[in-house]
Amino acid sequence: MTCPSPPGATLALQEHMETAARDRGLPAAPLLAVLREMAATGLTETAVRHRVGPAVDLLQEIAGRLADTGAVPRADVAAARTRAWSLIAEGDIAEGDIAGAEAVLRGARDALEPPPGRTAPPRATPPADEPAQPRPLPQAADTAQPRAVLLTDEALLAALRGPFTEAAGILAEAARLLEPDAVAAAAAWRLAARCLRVGGEIADDPALLDAALRHLQQEVLPRVPRDAHPLDWAATQNAIGLVQFEIGKRGGEEAVPHAVAAFEAALEERRRDRMPEDWAKTQCNLGDALRLLGRHGDLDLLRRAVAAYTAVLEHWTRARVPHLWTFVQRDIARTLHVLAFFGDGAALRRAIPAYEAALEGFPPDPYDWAETQTLLGQALLELGNAGEDDAPRRAAAAFEAALAAYGRAGMPAEAARAQACLGDALRMLGERGDTAALHRAVAAYEAALAPETRDDTPADRAALQNALGAVLRLLGEQGDTAYLRRAAAVHAAALDLCTAEDDPVAWGHTQQALASTFYQLGRRGDAQAWHRAIAAGEAALDAFGRAGLPLDGVVARNTIGVALTERGDQGETAAQQDAVAMLEAALADCPRDRAPQLWARTQNNLGAALAAIGERGDEAALRRAAAAFEAALEERSREATPEAWAQTMGNLGNVLHSLGLLGDEDALHRAVSTHEAALRVQPADRVPLDCAITLNNLGTVLRTLGERGDLAALRRATEAFEFALALFEARDSPALAARARHNLEVAYALLPRA
Fold first, then answer.
1. Which is it for the CA torsion 390, 394, 395, 400, positive or negative?
2. What is the pTM of this model?
3. Separation of CA 422 from chain center
4. Model pLDDT for residues 643-701, shown as the tens digit of each residue
5. Which of 26, 71, 293, 554 gives 20 to 30 Å between its CA and that of 119?
6. Helix axes 9-24, 29-40, angle to 10 degrees
7. What is the Cα–Cα distance from 486 to 463, expressed in whole angstroms?
């Protein structure tokens, strides 16, 4: 979105700048003037916010320079510099007179070196006996240093306003004036390189970054050799590292190791015992470079980054520099978060308290605080995926806090992203049985889809549509077919946003989501939905095959396989053989060691397809089905995946019942114990439908034993059917209730009359 003049997003940025100025003990007026100027140019809010940090750094440097009255041994120049700072710092807070300060500095420089063809003005009141004479012009050698100082001041003010290339050119001129003093000239060239680096970073311009690197390597390093000027050499190495880091961020992978080497070299001279502030800054820079270098999964580099940041906290304590301590805490948390992504489970648990510590330290700036809340929420979501029961609820609270902050600040694009994250957390809660959270997730995703922002892409909106569709499907699976039809419509709309040509992978995932939804509609009696589920699954399978994503193809094959199994149950017997072939092909593409849970899911679905064939009297198919379910249970453990474990146990119990009907008495007793085990992780108060289905299946096995003379088993069967019937009726599941009622009536009829 465009950053308007107040109100709106500029008010949030104004608060951000005022907070940043207050943290550094700086006046807010010049920063607000810069903000207004940037907003007037139509820069996006993101671009404006990206310039806040460099603007604050420049203002701090300007403040330090102009307060140094001993920098130039000339009273007129010192007075001009003092006047310039007064205009910057004490001007009307609505103005921040940067232009006036620049005019004062230019005037002082003109007085030192009048333009060609002019002479210095006469003294204002010459002695009565002396005619007015032009003053002799100052010699260039006498004014080179003060002119260079004034040029440097002007350059920094130009950079504060934004034209960084202009500032770098002024600094190059200052460096040439200082040339007899190699160290002073090097400092000016280094500052010019800094302006080019910041300009390249903000404008995403590689040419400016390359120019900055050339300045440092060709103009600065030769003037400050390490043996003669170790601290200036170290400052230059740090500057080189910053440029190489920015190049690396923009795809120049080969530059990042050079950045690490440059920061490590700088630290050889910037020791903590000698210059602690510079040491701390370079340590942080090293941490940033190591994190960037390790982002593809080098755990050693990432751990070195954490160590670099952690060392800084010993100097930048919360009590002394709370704003710096806070940002380092967040850097530690983000690095630990990346470590967790690459498999270090302990790192995720360390990241969460680091995020929480950063939140405690943040000043009341809505953007940084809300962004950190969002990062905390994402870490908690990952912890929830790992099985932490309370993590999704804590994640939802973090996203809600971020959402409220973005709303107060008038930042709709950021608020929409927070809504999407909130939807993810609520969906996870809903998947664990919280139906109210599912309804809230629908509202969150719909709110995230509402605003049209410039940052949105069709793929982004398609992903949100699919997330909304997934929640609607979960609601529909609880019994309301209308939700399933809404889910199908939402996924179909996502297909219009992201075509197979634009993004084949995203398109394939949308087809897969549509296939899963049609599968659920088929289970509700929509015969055409099975065909549509298979067609969508085949489209997804084709897309994943072209994209070289075999495991995604396994997921699609599973959906096709279970849909074919259901079609077979409806009378298309050939479809069941097709289902077995499809699922066997899926197993061939799914190595157990690479994707154990997907492998187990495929074994479970293969078992269901074989069981369907076995129900027609094929004992070999039933025994193959039992073997497939038992294989799935090797990965689906009661402790790690209780719901999936219970589902497979129920499937195995049904197959054992079928084998028992063919004469295997031991299989019948195994079926009873299998269903009873499943019930232990299916409490009626948490998963009533699953509990009722298993009770009904258990009752069926017990009734079979009762038919063979076991009266106690028959009585237990009636109890199981009664409990199942009550649960089905309470959950408004008439078809399932009718089945349980019929089973109960048959069991009652078998009981001997008193």
1. positive
2. 0.75
3. 13
4. 899 999 999 999 999 999 999 999 999 999 999 999 999 999 888 889 999 999 999 99
5. 71
6. 150
7. 16
